[in-house]
Specification:
By secondary structure, the chain is mainly alpha-helical. About 75% of the residues lie in helices and about 0% in strands. It has one domain: Na+/H+ antiporter like fold (Up-down Bundle), CATH 1.20.1530. Helix 3 crosses helix 7, helix 4 crosses helix 5 and helix 8 packs across helix 10.
């Protein structure tokens, strides 16, 4: 992530000499952003396995993700409101991207930690991504409303209608694609999902919910196809589709992320990185992220908080949502350096924490081997 952003920043040098207009990259960022969001939600949904054994981990990680998102978003919004003079709604719109943990960074990073902690982090980061993206777009859609009652009714109605439609569409897609015999069907499926996302946007629905529900239904098809619907399911065909689809989704997501971070680096204002105000506000944002995360994990997990406490990276979703803020809610002189500082520092803290955790696990395994050898000798 940091290398890709750095590459983009270095490309600003030839761009300056050739008088390249960076503003023409904004539409490209928007397109990559939309595709990136769809891929992130889809990739995250395909990792959500719903089983009885994992229920304790699922509810704890879900509660941690929800509390972490809400409390951190409001804390960062208060910082922006006080120090930058942003209005309450605008401050919250800018705060939500910084309150979301990046599952795109977390999932590959926790591969070698304890299995229970790994599952907790995968579920927490995945759910935080999904909830954060939904919260962001629902807030923007209702930013102009003055009545709280109207907002609540609109949000509840929107989500209920979208979920109902999503479940029907998901059943149809799973049924149709398990019966397609041709090899060329995975990119067709992605194209259909992009079309559904666009239709959902036109109908003012929570489009990402459609993607989320489809991913969950595909991953947990045996759970959703129950009773008389079991006879419609072809488990072997679904297994092949799921395996190939996860591969194509993760690779497509990687390509989109790579281009996005490079272009983000090109569009960054380097002068903002030298601002004392940016440095101080970034410090307050980081402080609120880790203090509140400690309090929430202490409440939910209660013991052995390492390395989960330090695994709170901000990344692709943060940048995607930041560039997704509509013009009517945008603040022209908002310093993008705050985003960059937060992304870099949270990534470094996570990396150092995981290295230390790996070293500690290595030392413990060595001690166990020595003790077992001594006991066998005795």
């Amino acid at each position: 992530l940091m290398l890709l952003i750095l590459l983009g920043m270095l490309l600003q040098i030839p761009a300056y000499f050739f008088d390249f207009n960076k503003d023409i990259l904004r539409p490209v960022l928007e397109i990559l952003g939309i595709v990136g969001l769809i891929m992130i939600v889809l990739e995250a949904a395909l990792d959500l396995k719903l089983t009885k054994e994992k229920w304790p981990t699922i509810w704890k990680s879900s509660l941690s993700a929800l509390l972490g998102l809400l409390v951190t978003a409001f804390a960062i919004a208060a910082i922006f409101n006080y120090f930058l003079g942003l209005g309450q709604t605008t401050a919250l719109i800018y705060a939500i991207p910084l309150a979301i943990m990046s599952s795109a960074i977390v999932i590959p990073s926790v591969e070698n930690i304890d299995e229970e902690k790994k599952e907790f982090m995968i579920y927490e980061s995945t759910i935080a991504d999904i909830l954060g993206i939904m919260f962001f777009y629902l807030l923007i859609a209702n930013a102009g409303e003055s009545s709280t009652k109207v907002v609540i009714l609109d949000v509840v109605g929107n989500i209920s209608w979208t979920i109902s439609l999503s479940i029907i569409v998901s059943y149809l897609l799973v049924f149709v694609f398990q019966n397609i015999k041709t090899e060329v069907k995975l990119f067709l499926l992605i194209a259909v999902l992009l079309l559904l996302y666009s239709i959902g946007k036109l109908l003012s629905l929570s489009s990402l919910l459609i993607i989320l529900v489809f991913g969950v239904v595909l991953q947990n098809s045996k759970l959703f196809f129950f009773g008389f619907m079991k006879k419609w399911l072809k488990p072997d065909a679904i297994k092949v589709v799921l395996k190939d689809f996860k591969l194509i989704t993760s690779e497509s997501s990687f390509v989109v992320r790579s281009f996005f971070f490079v272009i983000f680096g090109i569009t960054l204002s380097l002068s903002s990185l030298l601002s004392i105000q940016v440095f101080l506000i970034s410090g307050l944002v980081l402080g609120s992220i880790y203090l509140l995360r400690f309090a929430i994990l202490k409440l939910i997990i209660r013991k052995d908080l390492k390395p989960q406490l330090y695994i709170a990276p901000r990344g692709l979703v943060t940048i995607l949502l930041f560039f997704g803020i509509p013009e009517e809610n945008a603040v022209e002189d908002f310093e993008s350096g705050i985003l960059l500082f937060t992304i870099i520092v949270t990534s470094i803290i996570m990396t150092v924490s995981l290295i230390k955790n790996s070293q500690r696990d290595g030392e413990e395994s060595t001690e166990d081997m020595v003790q077992s050898e001594e006991s066998s000798i005795l």
